[in-house]
Amino acid sequence: MRAAWYDRQGPSSVLQVGELPTPEPGAGEVRVRLTRSGINPGDTKKRAAAFTGMPYPRVVPHSDGAGVIDAVGPGADGARVGRRVWVHGAQSYRQFGTAAEYTVVPEALAVDLPDAVSDDLGASLGIPGVTAHRAVFGDGPVAGSTVLVHGVRGGVSSLAAQLATWGGATVIGTLRTAPATAAPLPGVAHLVALDDDPAAAIGRLAPDGVDRIVEVAFDANADLDAAVLRNLGTIAAFATHSDRPTFPFWPMLFSNTTIRLLGSDDFPPEAKAQAAADLTTAAAAGALSSHVGAVLPLERIAEAQDAVDGGAVHGRVLLSID
Q: Which residues of the chain have a pLDDT value below 50?
């Protein structure tokens, strides 16, 4: 099969494209013939050794994708052969991800993709969708609440805003600066620019404070979050610029703030299963969308990963596998 891989960590130039043996599914596993591979910032960080060293002698990157089940191993449901699926966690604690014609995953990680949902959207769910779901629903239902979502154009934050709205919440989204156009963003009821007294703007929209915050830059936004979060509110953070962020301890303590940190690879299995089910249901209902900024062929994986790192492309970057 055609695949991309790296045998050592470093810049995108360590990526190679060529032929590897087609994998066979083991017990409880399914094999997916992929049409799309989704790239996340975590994939490029793994390649660049931002987290750990090489976990395996060779890594086929990327955890997310979409395709069709073409074979199953012992104990897996043979009736699923031929079904379209979206894949998540393919390279989470595993050697072979979705940057290939085929990937093999435990059956639960290949989720049936409804006919009305495109492969592009399916490949865009995965880690961003599961993380967004945990950020929004990790502390229970959100119906009737107000959820503040920072960086609402990002992959995780955009899905979080849409999931919160699907769950019955009112969403306030933030951007660094006011957009040049007033085009609506999916799931966002109110938009606030962080460069224009955001605490006052959010206070006018939520006089009693927001109930939950989906946080993409915990270190940068900690003071603002403390100012606008209601008593017993939750900050669900999935990213920070500084790996040792400071935050206003006493204001958060007196507000009984819960800080939930989100590492999607290690969510409880039942949380991942519920996220997969809800994401599929919401997508089938037309409640989810994902802006795809670029679809590049497998052979251009280095360029695609650089686009994710450099932010040159607005929206998700996918690989086309065919």
A: none
